């Protein structure tokens, strides 16, 4: 194999696939990335046997071939070379990196030792979505996710493909977030609705490696999912099992509605959070129609009270929440107004933006 | 040679031929799924392993297998996620205090929808629920053959859900998950039907509800009048029943008292065993209170238990409400509760439920029970179906709200107050002996209490 690549292209490629590199004592080749030329394209791949990322990079191919190289050392070299143009050449199981003033010889492992990335059938039924839109929704939903070894089906993000929309849902059983993308914003070729649970790690990678400008195709086949853009392919296993029926826990009505500005509420939480004690507890007190009181106290440190201008409907109440969880939800709301629906001290609260039906965040209180 | 031995022998040969790293990564967590003379099927833990073994080791494996069974021509590979437990254990991001409440519903097993909290051991048996309980245990012992369907009815908060979910859990434990159980409320069933229609996934209902061995459906009365749901349920019911799969149904009233339920469904419900759960008697209530106090890790003297059992008669959930308050009192004041305090807590709860009821709610509840319009109820028509509903309304207004005869007469369509007196007398006489009427009353009273 013999290639000439621009540093920027190679670096971008390494950054993307590097996210799937792992160190594995049994199989050291998993710490390597595969560089391979096929059909006049240079492809970089890495895998941790849960997900595999492949990215095409631009460059001039002088001679076809392939090799796998330890990711860490290669990335370090490419990040630090000063030249624009980089020559790559294989000699047996070695990779020679050459620039105007630098030359290195790295020992690699033959491609035949590298795992074969499983194919996901690309049929007619797939979904196409703008990368930015997908990333935004993954990011605002993933905040509610948690890893549970006992309950694998909730250690992931639900992709619910319905005939009219795509829903993303995540929960750690203390809170739950749902983002909706209507069909008007995506191309949905699935004939039937479908539920798949994408591992959390995969969901995290989506928001890291996918370019906001690109169109992303989502293919599902045989318990695997493929996210595909012009240059990037990410294959992941899916989690087997059934996501809990969450619709029943989403409050349909709320007893008390608090409407306030996001900015005010965020500063209230950050400030009172500093005295939120070990369990991060803040109390929301309603009573006055125009002011929401945010109160917290700590036995050792003291107490404080923040008055947030708000519009409040409903009776007097006092409900405790974990302020970090509350803040996660408030931050995920789009726009500058936020609506908090309260339902008593042991029922979930509902957080969303007025007039925005595409997102909500449900949070359980702290027992008083 | 049995499959496990065969595969073990093949694996030991493979171990000598491939590197240790490769063996551990690709082959160790595998299993022989099927072995016919012509081909064998091997399950591997993930798609990577499948690709690798299929491309690189197929020949070796086939050769090795043929040493033992010469007729095998082909090895097939499938992925079986359960073969390897998630090896990556993550740290919990944040230490959470146990005060942070979790969404209870998510503790429910998503496959069976059963809440593990319910079991038959904690179900207190008394004369009021003896029949239902022994039917339940009989069904648990011999699924599908004894009483099918088993139809259990009774008022709100008397333990229907506890009994039927307990049965589900018991069956699951008894058969070590080999019997597929599914618990569903009729509301959820309706939602599933609607979702299936909306997403053009009609087969979903079939797949979810017909491939099971025990279907438990709660609060079936809400299915009445929803035609498509009734139809789907009818087909599901038939499919299961024909294959001797057990069906367990609960309702707040007997099949014949569910209005607008299709006749074909009603007759099917009545074909098995119908058992009722009625109000628990004093002794049962005492046992329940003792059980529940123990569950909460609290202590209560006999005098208080006696008082609660005497005063809170109609609903076990109310008993729970009282106990919760008592436990709260005891933990916050760190001292045993006095009999006076118990008395106060009970009266508060009783008053609260009474204060919330108004005449319009009574009218609305009766109207919705009989599936007629509230206007017809208070209107002039002397149609037979309205008359019974009207008389029941009058009786309830008098009985529950203690309203005067003339006021009631005025409220129910400006009638003469003697009409009301007649209605109340007639019903109080009938109520002594007419069981269907008593059932109706129980159901309506509960609807009213729910509104309050």
From TrEMBL, chain A:
It is found in: Cytoplasm. One of its GO terms (molecular function) is DNA-directed DNA polymerase activity. Keywords: Cytoplasm, DNA replication, DNA-binding, DNA-directed DNA polymerase, Nucleotidyltransferase, Transferase. Gene3D superfamilies: 3.70.10.10, DNA Polymerase III, subunit A, domain 2 (3.10.150.10). Residues 129-245 form the DNA polymerase III beta sliding clamp central domain. GO terms for cellular component: cytoplasm; DNA polymerase III complex. Signal peptide: none annotated. GO terms for biological process: DNA strand elongation involved in DNA replication. Residues 248-366 form the DNA polymerase III beta sliding clamp C-terminal domain. InterPro entries: DNA_clamp_sf, DNA_polIII_beta, DNA_polIII_beta_C, DNA_polIII_beta_cen, DNA_polIII_beta_N. The keyword Glycoprotein does not apply. Residues 1-117 form the DNA polymerase III beta sliding clamp N-terminal domain. Pfam families: DNA_pol3_beta, DNA_pol3_beta_2, DNA_pol3_beta_3. Confers DNA tethering and processivity to DNA polymerases and other proteins. Acts as a clamp, forming a ring around DNA (a reaction catalyzed by the clamp-loading complex) which diffuses in an ATP-independent manner freely and bidirectionally along dsDNA. Initially characterized for its ability to contact the catalytic subunit of DNA polymerase III (Pol III), a complex, multichain enzyme responsible for most of the replicative synthesis in bacteria; Pol III exhibits 3'-5' exonuclease proofreading activity. PANTHER family: BETA SLIDING CLAMP, DNA POLYMERASE III SUBUNIT BETA. Belongs to the beta sliding clamp family. Forms a ring-shaped head-to-tail homodimer around DNA. NCBIfam families: dnan. This is Beta sliding clamp. It comes from Candidatus Colwellbacteria bacterium RIFCSPHIGHO2_02_FULL_43_15.
Automatic annotation (TrEMBL), chain B:
Residues 1-86 are annotated as: Domain I, interacts with DnaA modulators. This is Chromosomal replication initiator protein DnaA. InterPro entries: AAA+_ATPase (IPR003593), Chromosome_initiator_DnaA (IPR001957), Chromosome_initiator_DnaA-like (IPR020591), Chromosome_initiator_DnaA_CS (IPR018312), DnaA_C (IPR013159), DnaA_dom (IPR013317), DnaA_N_dom (IPR024633), DnaA_N_sf (IPR038454). Gene3D superfamilies: 1.10.1750.10, 1.10.8.60, 3.30.300.180, P-loop containing nucleotide triphosphate hydrolases. Oligomerizes as a right-handed, spiral filament on DNA at oriC. It is found in: Cytoplasm. Plays an essential role in the initiation and regulation of chromosomal replication. ATP-DnaA binds to the origin of replication (oriC) to initiate formation of the DNA replication initiation complex once per cell cycle. Binds the DnaA box (a 9 base pair repeat at the origin) and separates the double-stranded (ds)DNA. Forms a right-handed helical filament on oriC DNA; dsDNA binds to the exterior of the filament while single-stranded (ss)DNA is stabiized in the filament's interior. The gene is dnaA. HAMAP family: DnaA_bact. Belongs to the DnaA family. One of its GO terms (molecular function) is DNA replication origin binding. Coiled coil: none annotated. Residues 358-427 form the Chromosomal replication initiator DnaA C-terminal domain. Domain I is involved in oligomerization and binding regulators, domain II is flexibile and of varying length in different bacteria, domain III forms the AAA+ region, while domain IV binds dsDNA. It comes from Candidatus Colwellbacteria bacterium RIFCSPHIGHO2_02_FULL_43_15. CDD domains: AAA, Bac_DnaA_C.
């Amino acid at each position: 194999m013999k290639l000439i690549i621009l540093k920027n292209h190679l670096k971008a490629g390494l950054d993307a696939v590097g996210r799937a590199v792992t160190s594995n004592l049994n199989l050291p080749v998993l710490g390597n990335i595969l560089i391979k030329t096929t059909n006049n394209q240079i492809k970089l791949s890495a895998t941790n046997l849960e997900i595999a990322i492949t990215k095409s990079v631009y460059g001039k191919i002088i001679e076809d071939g392939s090799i796998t190289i330890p990711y860490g050392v290669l990335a370090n070299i490419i990040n630090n070379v000063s030249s624009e143009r980089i020559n790559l050449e294989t000699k047996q199981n070695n990779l020679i990196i050459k620039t105007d003033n630098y030359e290195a010889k790295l020992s690699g492992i033959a491609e035949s030792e590298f795992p074969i990335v499983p194919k996901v059938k690309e049929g007619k039924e797939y979904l196409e979505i703008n990368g930015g839109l997908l990333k935004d929704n993954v990011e605002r939903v993933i905040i509610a996710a948690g890893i549970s070894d006992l309950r694998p089906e909730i250690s992931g993000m639900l992709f619910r493909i319905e005939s009219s929309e795509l829903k993303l849902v995540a929960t750690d059983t203390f809170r739950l977030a749902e983002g909706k993308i209507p069909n008007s914003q995506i191309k949905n070729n699935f004939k039937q609705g479908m539920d798949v649970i994408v591992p959390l790690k995969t969901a995290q990678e989506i928001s890291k490696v996918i370019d906001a400008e690109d169109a992303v195709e989502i293919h599902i086949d045989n318990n695997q999912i493929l996210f595909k853009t012009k240059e990037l392919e990410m294959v992941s296993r899916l989690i087997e099992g059934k996501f809990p029926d969450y619709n029943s826990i989403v409050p349909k009505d709320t007893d008390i509605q608090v409407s306030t500005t996001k900015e005010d509420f965020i500063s209230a939480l950050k400030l009172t959070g500093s005295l939120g004690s070990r369990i991060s507890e803040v109390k929301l007190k309603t009573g006055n129609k125009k002011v929401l009181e945010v109160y917290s106290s700590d036995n050792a440190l003291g107490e404080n009270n923040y008055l947030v201008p708000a519009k409040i409907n409903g009776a007097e109440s006092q409900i405790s929440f974990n302020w970090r969880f509350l803040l996660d939800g408030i931050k995920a709301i789009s726009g500058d107004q936020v609506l908090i629906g309260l339902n008593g001290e042991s029922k979930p609260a509902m957080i969303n933006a007025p007039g925005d039906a595409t997102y909500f965040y449900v949070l359980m209180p702290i027992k008083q | 040679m049995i499959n496990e031995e065969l595969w073990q022998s093949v694996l030991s040969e493979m171990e000598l031929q491939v590197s240790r790293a490769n063996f551990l990564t690709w082959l160790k967590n595998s299993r022989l799924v099927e072995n016919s003379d012509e081909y064998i099927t091997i399950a591997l833990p993930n798609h990577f392993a499948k690709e690798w073994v299929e491309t690189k080791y197929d020949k070796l494996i086939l050769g090795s297998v043929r040493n033992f069974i010469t007729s095998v021509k082909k090895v097939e590979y499938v992925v079986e996620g359960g073969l390897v437990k998630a090896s990556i254990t993550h740290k919990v991001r944040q230490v959470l205090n146990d005060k942070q409440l979790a969404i209870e519903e998510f503790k429910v097993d998503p496959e069976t929808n059963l809440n593990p909290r319910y079991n038959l051991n904690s179900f207190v048996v008394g004369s009021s629920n003896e029949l239902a309980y022994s039917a339940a245990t009989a069904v648990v012992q011999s699924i599908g053959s004894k009483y099918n369907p088993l139809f259990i009815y009774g008022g709100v908060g008397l333990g229907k859900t506890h009994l039927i979910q307990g049965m589900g859990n018991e069956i699951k434990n008894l058969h070590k998950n080999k019997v597929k159980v599914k618990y569903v409320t009729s509301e959820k069933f309706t939602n599933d039907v609607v979702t299936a229609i909306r997403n053009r996934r009609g087969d979903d209902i079939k797949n979810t509800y017909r491939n099971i061995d025990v279907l438990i459906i709660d609060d079936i009365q809400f299915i009445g009048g929803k035609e498509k749901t009734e139809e789907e349920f009818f087909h599901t019911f038939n499919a299961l029943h024909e294959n001797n799969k057990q069906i367990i149904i609960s309702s707040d009233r007997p099949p014949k008292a569910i209005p607008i339920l299709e006749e074909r469904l009603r007759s099917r419900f009545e074909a098995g065993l119908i058992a009722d759960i009625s109000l628990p008697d004093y002794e049962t209530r005492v046992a329940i209170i003792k059980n529940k106090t123990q569950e909460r890790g609290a202590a209560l003297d006999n005098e208080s238990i006696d008082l609660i059992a005497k005063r809170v008669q109609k609903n076990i959930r109310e008993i729970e409400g009282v106990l919760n308050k008592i436990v709260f009192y005891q933990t916050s004041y760190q001292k045993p509760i006095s009999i006076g305090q118990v008395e106060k807590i009970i009266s508060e709860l009783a008053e609260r439920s009474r204060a919330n009821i108004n005449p319009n709610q009574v009218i609305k509840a009766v109207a919705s029970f009989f599936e007629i319009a509230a206007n017809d109820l208070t209107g002039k028509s002397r149609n037979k179906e309205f008359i019974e509903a009207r008389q029941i309304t009058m009786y309830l207004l008098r009985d529950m709200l203690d309203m005067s005869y003339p006021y009631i007469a005025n409220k129910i369509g400006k009638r003469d107050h003697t009409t009301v007196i007649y209605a109340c007398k007639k019903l109080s006489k009938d109520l002594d002996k007419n069981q269907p009427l008593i059932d109706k009353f129980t159901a309506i009273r509960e609807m009213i209490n729910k509104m309050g």
